[in-house]
Specification:
The chain is mainly alpha-helical. 66% of the residues lie in helices and 3% in strands. The chain is built from 33 helices and eight strands. A two-stranded antiparallel ribbon has the order 1-2. It has a two-stranded antiparallel ribbon with strand order 3-4. α4 runs antiparallel to α6 and α20 packs across α25.
């Protein structure tokens, strides 16, 4: 009871402080700037909640204050069931009321006609929520959680209940609320009033749905053009990824380490840089184009600028992701099943086609889905190579920032894009549901994988080797492009681009960062280094709840989280603009909106990695800790986290890299103060400054490699000590490898 009262007292103290000691509404310049202290507490712009009620006519906030009072009175109730009911009621009503009043009252008064009819006209409205309102809302969520724990929910574990409630609350705000705002925005006019004309006009636009061409042709409607491109990219990247995985695991290819390096490079490369390199190779002034023109008199063409060029760039960019998904699946096929097939006189080709390949279906489906969604969401390569043949992501961008300035059209295009990706996501789940692909059991499983059929081996080598050479050439162009003065006009070598981007001078004994790229570079590093640990924390905590806890709606909770992965970055960007540009939460132009976007956009990868790693840990470890009276939080900190170091590293690396290389969502959310590196590079490309753009991209690649190595050293490796109790021998501490039946037999 003492622990329960202590944590409740802390939360109640924070709730009271939110009403008495913090500005209730959003502060221009930010809460942490503390410029608001000069006018606090009398100025209406920075007054706390209590004075907003008493002195500035915001009478509706009084109900939230009364609910805090109800929670304080429940603190002194002795009966745990009654106390829990009061706390849960006060917390639930508080969260609901703060959300409702934030949506109902805007800058100039009521935002809903029904509210004005019921309560009359408001004398004044309210700006967006600030520190006081946000802290109060979080306190109400925790009060609700403590009340449910008092009533025995999740065996009375307040930490687990609070974690679930906070995650549901945050996902609702930063995933589902923006998407809902986007859906509503499709039916709104510029002043926010309901007007379905824009939706009707745009959804019937022939430029979106036109079929007056052969499927895949350049003049198809933008929706079908995007769908065709995504299907082709997903097919190409999955096929190449499978070929790479087979060569890396089933052949004696001598350059396997180089192969793995080449598959990692595109992941840490800003997405549009591939398009730039292809332009330097095959553009009208490219190396290959000019070489063919001088040798054979071939007239330079524009074949690269369209779906063909975008497809090549996307396949080159997304094949590494397919490879990483498929290599574990290819290795995981049980050798005993392949041996059984050959024992029954099946040849190697029949064994591969009828046994091995069907067991790879989950990996193939996941690789195809990832390629499809990544292609749909890709913004950089279509912007660089699309020319006049745009796709949905670029059309959404130009509908917002272009001359047409049509938010309704952007919302309609985003809805179409979302429908495509969610359909693919649901189709993949339906295809795999109810099927069992397990091949690793507790029984011994010795042997090695059979060699590939000779025709297949020749085929995958014929695909992989040219693609490796092509990838080396592309990255060679990226490296050289930063040192060429003006590609196609003056090919002399120079360091001018690096000097312009990253020059440093000494002025009056201090370092002056005079390069044009430093501002966006430091902003990018700051936001990436903040969002990466937050993404890892949220993702791994969610994985713990999914794997270790049983609660009503757990499967729906997991599905809702994974749905956010199926939402393309372009849709996330436009939905964040529509949701967080006005009250109740106004965050556009701040670092907070970028951090929130990265955390909740990349969280599903951390969740899946955590689920996979945590599923290998026996539940008896948790139970032993809890039996010794450790709390759930202490068990996670002392037992679970040390065993999850590989998953932590993976989550940190992925979220850091994505924060630096992401463009599809970021392009909508950056501001003059917080301009990310990818957005800045896109601006350089649009201005034709290819040399500086490539120099900046090269620097980002180097920095990412260094920071990834730093993450690895900081987190370390998971090491276990295994003892043979029978013989009394102790084996050296070894990194824990993923369990397999073959390892169990030889252990």
């Amino acid at each position: 009871m003492d622990n329960r009262n202590r944590r409740l007292d802390i939360v109640l103290g924070l709730a009271i402080a939110a009403f008495f000691l913090m500005p209730w509404y959003r502060i221009e310049g930010g809460f942490l700037g503390f410029t608001w202290l000069s006018g606090f507490p009398t100025d209406a712009a920075v007054a706390p909640g209590l004075l907003q009620i008493l002195g500035h006519g915001r009478w509706w906030l009084s109900l939230a204050l009364l609910l805090v009072g109800l929670a304080v009175s429940a603190r002194f109730v002795a009966d745990p069931m009654r106390r829990g009911a009061l706390l849960a009621g006060a917390g639930g009503l508080g969260v609901g009321f703060l959300s409702l009043q934030g949506l109902a009252v805007g800058f100039s008064g009521w935002t809903w006609t029904i509210s004005e009819t019921l309560f009359g006209t408001l004398a004044n409205g309210q700006p967006a929520m600030g520190a006081g309102a946000v802290v109060a809302a979080l306190c109400f969520v925790l009060i609700l959680s403590f009340g449910l724990a008092e009533r025995g929910v999740m065996k009375g574990d307040a930490f687990v209940v609070s974690a679930i409630a906070l995650l549901v609350f945050l996902v609702a705000i930063f995933v589902f609320y923006p998407v809902f705002s986007m859906l509503v925005g499709a039916f709104q006019d510029f002043d926010g009033s309901f007007n379905p004309d824009g939706f009707t006009r745009n959804i019937q636009d022939s430029s979106i749905w036109s079929l007056g061409c052969v499927i895949g042709g350049e003049r198809c409607g933008v929706a079908w053009r995007t769908l065709w491109l995504a299907l082709m990219t997903a097919s190409g990247s999955t096929l190449l990824g499978l070929a790479f995985a087979l060569v890396a695991t089933r052949t004696r290819f001598p350059f396997k380490k180089g192969l793995r390096l080449l598959t990692v490079l595109p992941i840490i490369t800003p997405p549009f840089v591939i398009g730039l390199a292809l332009t330097l190779l095959f553009g009208r002034a490219g190396v290959v184009t000019e070489g063919l023109s001088s040798l054979f008199g071939i007239e330079p063409g524009r074949w690269l600028y369209g779906l063909t060029g975008i497809w090549i760039a996307q396949v080159l960019s997304f094949t590494p992701i397919s490879f990483l998904v498929l290599i574990g699946v290819v290795e995981g096929v049980s050798p005993s099943m392949e041996e059984a097939s050959q024992t029954l006189r099946a040849d190697r080709w029949r064994t591969f086609w009828r046994v091995s390949l069907p067991l790879m279906k989950p990996g193939l489906a996941n690789a195809f889905l990832i390629g499809f969604i990544e292609s749909m969401a890709d913004f950089g390569n279509p912007l660089v190579l699309g020319g006049s043949h745009g796709v949905l992501s670029t059309e959404i961008f130009f509908a917002v920032v272009g001359s047409q300035n049509d938010p309704s059209r952007a919302a309609v295009l985003a809805i179409i894009l979302l429908c495509f990706t969610l359909t693919a996501f649901l189709a993949q789940r339906y295809w795999l549901s109810g099927k069992n692909f397990a091949t690793v059991t507790g029984k011994g499983d010795s042997g090695s994988h059979i060699a590939l059929p000779k025709p297949l081996s020749i085929g995958v080598h014929a695909i992989v080797i040219p693609w490796m050479i092509f990838t080396v050439v592309v990255y060679g162009m990226i490296l050289v492009g930063g040192f060429v003065k003006s590609w196609g006009l003056d090919n002399s070598l120079t360091t001018e681009h690096y000097s312009r981007a990253f020059s440093i001078e000494m002025r009056d004994g201090t370092v002056a960062w005079t390069g044009v790229a430093w501002n966006s570079f430091w902003t990018t590093m700051e936001i990436a280094l903040i969002s990466a640990p937050l993404t890892a924390i949220v993702g791994l905590l969610t994985a713990y709840l999914i794997v270790r806890q049983k609660f009503a709606g757990r499967e729906l909770f997991e599905f809702a989280l994974m749905m956010s992965f199926a939402i393309p970055g372009t849709v996330i960007g436009i939905s964040y603009i529509m949701a967080f540009n006005l009250p109740p939460l106004e965050m556009t132009g701040t670092a907070l909106i970028l951090i929130a976007c990265f955390v909740f956009r990349n969280m599903p990868v951390g969740v899946r990695g955590g689920v996979a790693a945590m599923s290998q840990l026996d539940k008896s470890l948790d139970e032993a800790s809890l039996t010794l009276r450790a709390t759930s939080f202490r068990t996670i900190r002392k037992v679970i986290l040390p065993l999850l170091r590989p998953a932590i590293t993976a989550a940190l690396v992925y979220s850091f890299v994505r924060a630096i290389t992401s463009i599809s969502a970021v392009i909508f959310l950056v501001s003059a103060e917080y301009n990310m590196a990818t957005s800045y590079i896109v601006g350089l490309v649009e201005n034709g400054e290819y040399g500086v753009a490539i120099a900046y991209s090269s620097m980002l690649i180097v920095v990412m490699i260094v920071v990834i190595a730093g993450f690895q050293l900081l987190v370390g490796e998971r090491r276990l000590r295994r003892e043979n109790r029978v013989s009394g021998l102790t084996t050296p501490a070894l990194p824990l490898q993923p369990s397999s039946s073959r390892q169990e037999k030889t252990a």
